[in-house]
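Re-run with default settings, no changes from the original entry. Doing this only to confirm the output is reproducible before filing.
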Amino acid sequence: MSPESTTVGVIGAGTMGHGIAHVAARAGLRVILHDTSEAALSSGIATIEKELNRAVGKGALPAESMRLALARITPGHSLASLKDAHLIVEAVVEREEVKRSLFQELDRICAPGAVLASNTSSISITRIAAATRSPERVIGMHFMNPVPVMILVEVIRGHKTSAETVAKVTGWARLMGKTTVEVNDYPGFVSNRVLMPMINEAIFALMEGVASAEAIDTVMKLGMNHPMGPLALADLIGLDTCLQILEVLHDGLGDPRYRPCPLLRRMVDAGDLGRKSGRGFHTYEPKLSLSQP
């Protein structure tokens, strides 16, 4: 199937959703971007235009390619607008009950051959798929943040995901310029099962007074050659999202090494969520909007 004849539905116009819509449209795919909030939908499309404009300004994208990419994106004001999409990628709040309810509705609305993908960073694809009548077409498609920059997509195979579904999603991801890694459905998959304990341990080190946030991040950047320190990365991801992922790991694997640091819980309770709230382990100016990651 050619790019121009393929329609991708993206649910959620926040940071991850509009990033996925961006790379899909730039790859030549038609995109329907849906959000329950009209303000979020308008903001998401405006952000895509701003990012494409920046690429044009740097000489990385011809102006005509920007115009064509924006023309491929259509706002979807209801889930019904996605009924003819070939691939639907869900990028909503990281709560299992919300995702299961959404996939149950998508299973009812969408064409039988449509692939239903979740951008979840930790929740079981098998449990999400169990809410549908056709779990073989449900899969994880975990993009990294920021989507237009990061080239990895974790392709997560649920217990009943078919080989055909894996092949389709792998092909679409590569068309978007991504490198895919296939993983099986375990809590946190690979990326967050490895990353989150490091972030959590950095937070424990801060809480215990081992060093300042700046010092901890500098050790990991200059000593371990990481492009970003773990506390700055937690701020980028969102401390609420980090907490949710650690809770999934702790509950799913039953291992105390995944127990979220009490300081992380306290900061989330206080509303210090990182970049999106303007304050986390570091302070950010100007204050950014509280869009869903």
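Strands lie at 7-11, 30-34, 73-76, 87-90, 115-118, 138-143, 152-157, 179-184. The CA atoms of residues 71 and 137 lie 29 Å apart.
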